[in-house]
């Protein structure tokens, strides 16, 4: 028990690695495999052709069978390596398959057909990435529209969120006015009202305002985030009032003080909120599913969901679409990892 | 070069846009009595809150008291507490088949089971991960990022990733076959589908809680550990008497936040299992969604009533959280 | 250049925060072009007073007039004043140039005029090389000059300074003091300067306003305050090292100091038996006996500064400043002399007793 405790408390292995260090690394490496492995597996799979996807057991990397052009045969023929019998070790091309026997030829001497049992040979594979999966998304599906819907909603909602939340945070942190504290408490209270609870009435309100099947139906209900107001207010409280008074002496209007002084100085907090907002809007699912009924107005997650629900799921396209959906988030995370983790640790919100 | 031009253009655009309200705001500043200007800044945000948060709460109560399938409130007959009554009418609460709304009670018990298992396991794994990450580890930033990465993924993406891994010809079954076992239809048996919803939601969210616990651990001053080392305290004692008590506020935050989120589980599970097989993984929010939006007959009143019951549970959990946070605040002095 | 009237008058100005009154009916006048220093210990209300003059704080009662015009209800920006903050309050995200230009831009001034004014101020304050830097890349003294520059470009009627030197180190502070005095001479604009440091007040001011607990204690020329403080507070506040205070009693037209002896003064003393206190500055006490007012004290400690020495006597505590160096050491007894003309006498309320007219 004491040893286990050492594993959990020691903060420094003095010099040499002891077993607790080994155990820690083992845990972390296994954990990392479990966390990232499925994502990597998905990305690799998305490059497989439909025939590669139904391979069982699946191969790690995307592959396809090698085909060669053989004289006198109009189309390229698939290559096999013969494992048993007279021709063991040779690489032959298949002409046709009848029952358990295949007619094959040596590509170097295509005149003589050779008959080989089909369990006495293995396919010759080579690495091949089926980029068509991605290319076809744009042609065969309305993917461009879904992507645009998602990008539009994410960008516009984030800009409006930053503007409205920072205005409110500015007043709540820098002005004394009657009703300020009740307003702040009211906004904080909405942190505790999960959107799932007001699903039904929000749908009514969206319908009355003509926002259903409309990207603004996703944008407007989402932009007044209490988290954002809270985050920005806490940051703006740390800006010295002297700066505002100096600007007042400098004949700046209150609006100018807000956008020339306070906003530029709140950049770090605005950045955190911008990242949060992008993540929220890009990943949002339940509310868009309720408010966006027609498929033309679908966002990427909705398109993914409806696509995977179809009877004959075309996994190659679905996987490619999933990868496209997770790439922006992954890139943002890779670039801003430190900001995001610190922002979340300090704000305690997601 | 292009960068500077772009940033200059962005700066111009920002200035041009932000200058638009200058005249009306200046006019308002001159004509409003002192202190009213604050309302002008808070106003837009507050108005949206009012329309999309406060108003819906009131409407929620009205819906819960009305029946029928029409969305328009004026077309809905008042039924009083009938919706609540039908939700709560049950011979034996532990036997959903004996209830009028059996789906509701399946959802309740599924949710209870899910929450208990998911929160307990997630807390345990987050705590261990945070403790390990708090050690002097080479590549700590990378490992922390790796554990955190799934938190950022869309729930739909999370579900599809695991659906792909768990499908009949998926990589997990390949490993099973490789080990000489029979492939399993993971999502088609009630028990294993339930288990996987628990696992996947832990996979997707534990990074967030690990981060909170890690922040809590790093807030414990190093000199306390040094003092304990000077006192020659054995590691188990240090863990029990120093680390755990000082981490307790963070653990409480994780526990309550985790509970609040777990009760509302929906997105991942909806895509992963669709609530099935049968209703084995239908949780509360999915029940609300099915009742109000996806069924042929849209029973808004019933959905609203169920929402309010859920809200009651969340209110209790939030109050617990507030008390916990107060304790956290006071322990930090 | 024809200047607008930069005179200032305060009349019975009162400030209350809620129910707490922090400034109690302050009145005084500042003539156009004067350099006036508000001095007092922290919490005396001097900064509140300054902020009321600027318009950053509202006036609860009374009247503030600038150039003869009542400005109580005029917003800060329209009073034609410039304030240099204790923290400088430079906009950290703007360059030095932008910091100085911001106020002019807000007035809608043409760009060429702004450039000319900022250029002129930068030249005057030797900031030309730093115009494109951000404030964080400047030294404390440079930041201070930028803050002053931001005030200068607006060509205000009155400059207000809120403890502007308190964030600088001692050496820089002496230099900046001289620069500010020089600036005042060149611009000729009214300046109001708030500090808790009486040395700054003495060295810079045309006129000093001593404040305590929201009241004006005394207004006057620096040397007037030094020579004729009107009460014990001003006497103790002005001058360094601090004036010695001794408690005593009036006995037969002289003052008896318990444990020391009796001294004669030029003050008009009250009736015998009245408790009274005297004050005498360390630099006015002579070592050695003369005709009268001779006392003896026990040396408790000596501080040798080379050019002058401070001798501390114990029971009662007295500090003596001796020019040059001394051989006195702790434990020795030393004769001292209080010149009758240098003794200030205060009544039980701390008010200075007037001198006898000879």
Low-confidence stretches of chain B: 329-333
Biggest sheet of chain C, open or closed, and with what strands and sense? 6 strands, mixed
Biggest pleated-sheet summary of chain B: none
Number of helices of chain B: 14
- Backbone shape of chain C: elongated
Assembly type of the chains comes to heterotrimer
* Overall radius of gyration of chain C: 24 Å
CATH architectural group of the largest domain in chain B: Orthogonal Bundle
Order of helices and strands of chain C: EEEHEEEHHHEHEHEEHHEEEEEEEEEE
Query: Which CATH class of the largest domain in chain C applies here?
Result: Alpha Beta
Give the class of chain C from helix and strand content and strand pairing.
alpha+beta
Radius of gyration of chain B: 26 Å
Q: What fraction of the residues of chain B are assigned to beta strands by DSSP?
A: under 5%
- Find the count of extended strands of chain B (DSSP E, 2+ residues): 0
Corresponding CATH superfamily of the largest domain in chain C: P-loop containing nucleotide triphosphate hydrolases
Q: Tell me the distance between the termini of chain C.
A: 50 Å
Compute the number of helices of chain C.
Answer: 8
Strand content of chain C: 25-35%
What is the residue-mean pLDDT of chain C, rounded to a whole number?
Answer: 87
Mean pLDDT rating of chain B: 83
């Amino acid at each position: 028990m004491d040893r286990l405790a050492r594993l959990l408390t020691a903060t420094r292995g003095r010099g040499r690695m002891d077993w607790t260090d080994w155990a820690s690394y083992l845990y972390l490496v296994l954990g990392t495999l479990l966390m990232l492995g499925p994502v990597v597996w998905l990305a690799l799979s998305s490059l497989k052709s439909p025939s590669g996807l139904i391979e069982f057991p699946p191969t790690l990397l995307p592959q396809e069978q090698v085909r060669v052009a053989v004289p006198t045969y109009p189309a390229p023929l698939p290559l096999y390596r013969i494992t048993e019998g007279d021709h063991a070790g040779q690489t032959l091309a298949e002409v046709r398959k009848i029952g358990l026997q295949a007619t094959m030829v040596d590509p170097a001497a295509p005149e003589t057909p050779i008959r080989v049992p089909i369990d006495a040979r293995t396919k010759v594979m080579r690495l091949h990435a089926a980029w068509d999966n991605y290319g076809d998304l744009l042609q065969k599906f309305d993917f461009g529209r879904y992507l645009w819907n998602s990008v539009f909603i994410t960008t516009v909602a984030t800009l409006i969120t930053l503007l409205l939340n920072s205005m409110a945070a500015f007043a709540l942190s820098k002005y004394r006015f009657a009703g300020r504290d009740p307003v702040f408490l009211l906004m904080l209270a909405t942190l505790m009202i999960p959107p799932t609870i007001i699903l039904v009435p929000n749908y009514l309100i969206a319908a009355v305002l003509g926002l259903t099947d409309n990207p603004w139906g996703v944008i407007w209900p989402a932009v007044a985030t209490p988290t954002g107001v809270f985050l920005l207010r806490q940051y703006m409280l740390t800006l010295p009032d002297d700066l505002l008074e100096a600007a007042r002496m400098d004949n700046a209007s209150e609006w100018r003080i807000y956008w020339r002084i306070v906003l530029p100085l709140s950049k770090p907090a605005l950045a955190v909120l911008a990242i949060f907002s992008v993540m929220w809007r890009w990943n949002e699912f339940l509310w868009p599913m309720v408010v966006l009924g027609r498929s033309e107005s679908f966002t990427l997650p909705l398109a993914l969901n409806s696509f995977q629900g179809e009877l004959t799921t075309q996994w190659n396209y679905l996987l490619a679409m999933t990868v496209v959906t997770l790439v922006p988030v992954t890139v943002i995370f890779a670039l801003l990892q430190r900001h995001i983790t610190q922002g979340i640790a300090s704000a305690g919100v997601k | 070069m292009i960068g500077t031009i772009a940033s200059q253009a962005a700066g111009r655009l920002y200035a041009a846009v932000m200058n638009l309200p200058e005249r009306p705001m200046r006019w308002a500043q001159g004509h409003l009595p002192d202190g009213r200007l604050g309302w002008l800044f808070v106003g837009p945000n507050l108005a949206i809150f009012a329309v999309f948060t406060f108003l819906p709460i009131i409407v929620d109560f009205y819906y819960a008291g009305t029946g029928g399938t029409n969305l328009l409130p004026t077309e809905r007959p008042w039924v009083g507490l009938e919706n609540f009554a039908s939700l709560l009418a049950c011979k034996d609460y532990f036997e959903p088949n004996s209830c009028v709304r059996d789906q509701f009670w399946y959802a309740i018990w599924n949710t209870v089971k899910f929450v208990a298992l998911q929160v307990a396991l997630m807390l345990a794994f987050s705590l261990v991960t945070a403790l390990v990450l708090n050690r002097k580890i080479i590549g700590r930033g990378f490992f922390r990022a790796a554990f955190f990465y799934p938190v950022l993924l869309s729930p739909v993406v999370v579900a599809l990733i695991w659906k792909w891994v768990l499908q009949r010809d998926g990589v997990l079954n390949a490993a099973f076959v490789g080990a000489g076992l029979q492939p399993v239809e993971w999502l088609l048996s009630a028990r294993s589908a339930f288990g996987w919803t628990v696992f996947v939601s832990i996979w997707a969210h534990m990074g967030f809680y690990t981060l909170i616990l890690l922040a809590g651990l790093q807030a414990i001053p190093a000199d306390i550990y040094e003092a304990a080392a000077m006192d020659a305290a054995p590691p188990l004692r240090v863990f029990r008497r120093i680390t755990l008590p000082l981490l307790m506020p963070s653990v409480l935050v994780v526990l309550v936040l985790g509970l609040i989120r777990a009760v509302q589980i929906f997105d991942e599970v909806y895509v992963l299992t669709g609530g099935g097989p049968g209703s084995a993984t239908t949780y509360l929010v999915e029940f609300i969604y099915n009742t109000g939006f996806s069924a042929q007959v849209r029973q808004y009143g019933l959905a609203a009533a169920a929402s309010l019951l859920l809200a009651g549970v969340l209110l209790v959990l939030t109050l617990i959280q507030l008390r916990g946070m107060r304790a956290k605040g006071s322990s930090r002095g | 250049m024809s200047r607008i009237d930069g005179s200032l008058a305060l009349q019975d100005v009162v400030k209350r925060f809620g129910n707490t009154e922090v400034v109690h009916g302050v009145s005084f006048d500042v003539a156009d072009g004067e350099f006036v220093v508000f001095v007092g210990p922290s919490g005396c209300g001097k900064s509140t007073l300054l902020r009321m003059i600027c318009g950053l704080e509202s006036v609860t009662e009374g009247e503030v007039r600038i150039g003869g015009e009542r400005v109580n209800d005029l917003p800060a920006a329209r009073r034609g004043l410039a304030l240099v903050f204790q923290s400088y309050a430079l906009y950290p995200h703007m360059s030095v140039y932008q910091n100085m230009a911001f106020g002019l831009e807000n007035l809608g001034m043409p760009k060429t005029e702004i450039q000319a004014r900022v250029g002129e101020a930068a030249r005057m304050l030797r900031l030309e090389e730093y115009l494109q830097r951000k404030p964080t890349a400047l030294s404390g003294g440079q930041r201070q000059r930028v803050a002053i520059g931001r005030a200068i470009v607006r060509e205000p009627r009155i400059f207000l300074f809120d403890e502007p030197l308190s964030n600088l180190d001692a050496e820089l502070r002496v230099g900046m003091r001289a620069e500010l005095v020089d600036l005042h001479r060149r611009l000729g604009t009214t300046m109001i300067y708030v500090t808790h440091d009486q040395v700054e007040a003495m060295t810079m001011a045309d006129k000093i306003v001593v404040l305590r607990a929201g009241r004006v204690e005394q207004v006057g020329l620096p040397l007037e305050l030094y020579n004729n403080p009107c009460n014990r507070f001003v006497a103790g506040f002005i001058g360094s090292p601090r004036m010695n205070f001794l408690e005593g009693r009036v006995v037969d037209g002289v003052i008896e100091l318990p444990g020391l002896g009796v001294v004669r003064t030029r003050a008009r003393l009250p009736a015998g038996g009245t408790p009274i206190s005297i004050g005498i500055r360390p630099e006015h006490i002579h070592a050695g006996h003369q005709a009268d007012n001779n006392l003896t004290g026990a040396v408790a400690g000596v501080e040798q500064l080379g050019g002058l020495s401070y001798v501390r006597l114990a029971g009662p505590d007295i500090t003596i400043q001796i020019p040059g160096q001394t051989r006195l050491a702790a434990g020795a007894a030393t004769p001292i002399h209080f010149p009758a003309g240098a003794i200030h006498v205060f009544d039980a309320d701390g008010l200075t007793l007037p001198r006898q007219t000879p």
